Amino acid sequence: MSHLMQTYKRMPVAFARGEGAYLEDTNGKRYFDALTGIAVCGLGHAHPRLAATIAAQAGNLLHTSNLYEIPEQERLASRLCERSGMERVFFANSGAEANEAAIKIARITGNQRGIKRPTIIVLDDSFHGRTMATLTATGNRKVHAGFEPLLTGFVRAPFNNVEAIKLIAANNPDVVAIMAEPVLGEGGIVIPNPGYLAELRQICDDNNWFLMLDEVQTGNARTGRYFAYQHEDILPDVVTTAKGLGNGLPIGACLARGAAATALQPGNHGSTYGGNPLVCAVANAVLDEIDENQLEQRAAELGERIQTGLREALRGNNAVLEVRGKGLMLAVELREPCGHLVGQALEAGLLINVTQDSIVRLLPPLILTNEEADDLVARVAALIHG
Ligand SMILES: *Cc1c(COP(=O)(O)O)cnc(C)c1O
């Protein structure tokens, strides 16, 4: 009997080592990792520079606490602000925690403005995490089920529907913020209409709300820009990120500008580990790698190449509804539920994910060669052709 709580239905495989886009299991079988631990290992596995950074930092200092200045954290914050247009950063240890900080920023600001029940608009099919506040914010009943009572202070609206938000604006004076993913990740790689984020920005400006974007999955170059909102000419008030920022070390970040950047003051929020010297040294190295190898642009190119390749390879296959994606957030939506493909792929030495029952989700590393990208297309096409 396993002594682990059964929070995950695990595949019957354990990995012993990795290199770049590949993993090797405890029996020596090799796998193409097109999931990267769910959009985490964007630089691939066993990255030499990250390994060296971890070793050097571990030999120097792992942790001191946020009671003291942490130069690596200061440097990471300033670099994240420079590339995002934000002004200040709070560091946490996960995506959910980064979103908790965003939710607290919205609530404390609302309370300071005399709003009795500060309310955040959240969207259907979104995913924001598994803590009580972030599961409440999540637009998926399966995530809520059994954990009622949920928190108050959230209202729900359909994704990619500006009129629904305007209706709430006209009727709910307690709203203080909208929280949204620029592209739905767990929700099935759903890309909103062009201009959607700009329209949300306008509504937030008109109503004095914060626009809070959850870029936990979309951030860190994955969609072809550092943050996905940078595809549109807008700035949010708050942006959260995590996954790809640490390439496997636990880090979350809540970035903010303007009033949102100064909402939290000493005593309002904190984290023992958040932004410790080790994770920040590694995240700084992740940014160096993204910059030196122009991985934003590379993610965009690879994404186009893989989408084009998949469309070509799957043309005429009636099981396929759509191939879509933004950078290296890619989906093949099928007409029928296809959860069984995950096990078949594993068998064939390929790691993928199926979300929303019938959507094959690919989140490959940003460091693929063109040959590896073409190989991925061939493997996924073979899997779907069956
Ligand atoms: C994964 C994810 C989260 C939760 O991150 P954790 O690190 O698991 O807490 C939140 N939002 C989005 C969009 C995610 O993809």
In short:
By secondary structure, the protein is an alpha/beta fold.
Sequence-ordered SSE layout with sheet pairings:
Blueprint: E1 15-19, E2 22-25, E3 30-33, H1 36-39, H2 48-58, H3 71-84, E4 88-92, H4 95-112, E5 119-123, H5 132-137, H6 141-144, E6 154-157, H7 162-171, E7 175-180, H8 196-207, E8 210-214, E9 238-241, H9 243-246, E10 252-256, H10 277-292, H11 295-314, E11 320-326, E12 329-334, H12 340-347, E13 350-351, E14 353-355, E15 359-362, H13 370-385
Parallel strand pairs: 3-13, 5-6, 5-7, 7-8, 8-9
Antiparallel strand pairs: 1-2, 2-3, 4-10, 9-10, 11-12, 12-15, 14-15
Helix pairs in contact: 2-10, 3-10, 7-8, 11-13
Pyridoxal-5'-phosphate binds next to helix 4.
Written account of the structure:
- By secondary structure, the protein is an alpha/beta fold.
- It has 2 domains: 15-47 and 294-385, Aspartate Aminotransferase, domain 1, CATH 3.90.1150.10; 50-292, 3-Layer(aba) Sandwich (Aspartate Aminotransferase, domain 2).
- It contains 13 helices and 15 strands.
- The chain has helices spanning 36-39, 48-58, 71-84, 95-112, 132-137, 141-144, 162-171, 196-207, 243-246, 277-292, 295-314, 340-347, 370-385, and strands at 15-19, 22-25, 30-33, 88-92, 119-123, 154-157, 175-180, 210-214, 238-241, 252-256, 320-326, 329-334, 350-351, 353-355, 359-362.
- A 7-stranded mixed beta sheet has the order 4-10-9-8-7-5-6, with helices on both faces.
- Helix 2 (48-58) runs antiparallel to helix 10 (277-292), helix 3 (71-84) runs parallel beside helix 10 (277-292) and helix 11 (295-314) runs parallel beside helix 13.
- It is globular and about 60 Å long.
- The mean pLDDT is 98.
- The site of pyridoxal-5'-phosphate has 14 residues, from helix 4.
